[in-house]
Specification:
Elements (H helix, E strand, L loop, with lengths): L5 E2 L1 H4 L10 H9 L5 H29 L9 E2 L5 E5 L2 E5 L4 H16 L12 H21 L4 H31 L6 E10 L5 E9 L6
Antiparallel strand pairs: 1-2, 3-4, 4-6, 5-6
């Protein structure tokens, strides 16, 4: 969870790569025989679309509440909204109108195709937490093995490991999202948006998607 409602995209979301619309389609053509590959590619694109939708919904609500924000080049995050991605679509949690959600999903897709790839990266993504936990565990284990076994030295090493992980995790989490857990949704087409419950029984909207081969569009 982030405590920042407003973020400067120049600081958080400076993506230094140029995704290609056919990249996942071409990958499927080349090595599509690998079991589960299409589902993984779908999940990464859905994950990006989930983030983009949350950004668009957040921007709309916050700018209505704060007219002074209109026209400013910022990212706005509504922390009451959340999502969960699957390879068939994503769940959207929080108070949102269905028409607003539909508009946000299509707006996010549009903005992705216009080059706003920064929408794929979100500071509250679970990827960031996973990276932070893995990095912290690894550094603590490393200091434990490398430093003398005295309690004071071990405590000092754990503190250094924790501090270092806290500093590195946000940027590494962003990189992990950029290259591993999200992909610009060039191949997604919206199938349906419906109110439902997730596997834990929580109420949510589900945005269903289907794969569209870029070679056929």
């Amino acid at each position: 969870m982030t405590n920042n409602n407003y973020a400067d995209p120049g600081n958080f979301f400076n993506l230094d790569y140029r995704p290609q619309p056919r990249q996942d389609s071409d990958l499927l053509q080349q090595i599509g025989f690998i079991p589960g590959l299409k589902e993984i590619l779908m999940l990464r694109q859905v994950h990006a679309l989930e983030h983009g939708t949350v950004w668009v919904l957040s921007e709309g609500e916050k700018k209505l509440q704060n007219p002074i924000l209109e026209g400013r080049d910022i990212q706005v995050d509504n922390e009451t909204l959340g999502g969960l991605s699957t390879d068939r679509g994503f769940y959207l949690y929080g108070q949102v109108d269905r028409l607003d959600l539909k508009r946000a999903v299509f707006t996010a897709l549009d903005r992705f195709k216009q080059g706003e790839w920064n929408l794929a990266i979100h500071p509250r993504c679970g990827t960031n937490l996973s990276v932070a936990m893995l990095l912290t565990s690894g550094l603590i284990l490393g200091t434990h093995l490398l430093l003398p076994r005295s309690p004071l030295t071990q405590l000092f090493g754990a503190g250094i490991a924790f501090t270092t992980a806290s500093q590195l995790a946000p940027d590494l989490g962003k990189e992990a999202q950029k290259y591993l857990t999200t992909s610009v949704p060039f191949n997604l087409q919206i199938r349906n948006i419906a109110r439902t419950t997730d596997i834990w029984g929580r109420s949510a909207y589900f945005v269903g998607v289907e794969w569209v081969d870029c070679n056929k569009t």
